[in-house]
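Hi everyone,

Forwarding the result from last night's run.
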Amino acid sequence: MRVRRKHLAAILAVGGVLVAAALFYREFFLARPIGSGPAGPAVHAEIFERVWTERRVKLLGLGDSVTAGLGAASPEHSYFMRLVRNPRDEYADMRGKCLSRVLPNLEYENLAVSGSDSLHHVAMVEDKLESHPPEMFGLVVLTTGGNDLIHSYGMRPPRDGAMYGATLEQARPWIDAFRTRLETILDRLDECFPGGCEIYLADIYDPTDGSGDAPSIYLPHWADGLAIHAEYNEVIAHCAASRPNVHVVPLHRTFLGHGSKCRQFWRATYVKDDPHYWYYSNVEDPNDRGYDATRRAFLNSILEHSQLPPKGE
């Protein structure tokens, strides 16, 4: 009987360890809770209490599905439309914090296309973007380059504009081509706004939270993925640094800790106050809370760099 009891106790102990291990794995490696409520950095209210300028201003959206709003709960929840005006169910801390409140002669147009890459973007600005009158000032929000990295998903041989699975050495000419395309896009935008413009260019976020663990986002292993990603973000930073009217919106930093490793409290990227997943089901785009965070990141960049708010504010 003693032996049987010992065997039963051992079996129960092993079973308990296995159940605990399974629950731990599920909670910290598989679970992707999205949370609720506001997401992302705070935005100061004081600067929205007075008109910035009576000048005609156009908010122009360009780029891929992030600016197009794929994954948002509704069109008014996209980051672009949240910049224009608050949605009807706006969070209390963001009410009144939108461009239409401070720019009475604001116009807006969103030319972003879901699924597009930087090859599409340079063709679009060269062929379709019209010049604006000198009295109009441009605020341009742009997301580009992300689809260059992720498209093909490892299902086809990598190429320029769809380089998933490439080695860093293989990708170097495509990285250089991206730099050339981005410079062309920025040049063309300057030409299209003879009255001046500011360009808010987002860098590229990382759904693996800096781990490079592509299988955790249901994609094949990519040995050089993080290195190529970093090169693309370096191109974005370099192009912005060389132009006084171009400013990087730090989506990469903003989204760290909200990807596939969001529950792993032992990682440096863990965000204790909001350990939740900000990506849509396709992994490429933000979910609704992610778009709130994206809107806040763009607004804060505008508040930091724009010449439009009154001096001293």
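The chain has a mean pLDDT of 92.

Cheers,
N.
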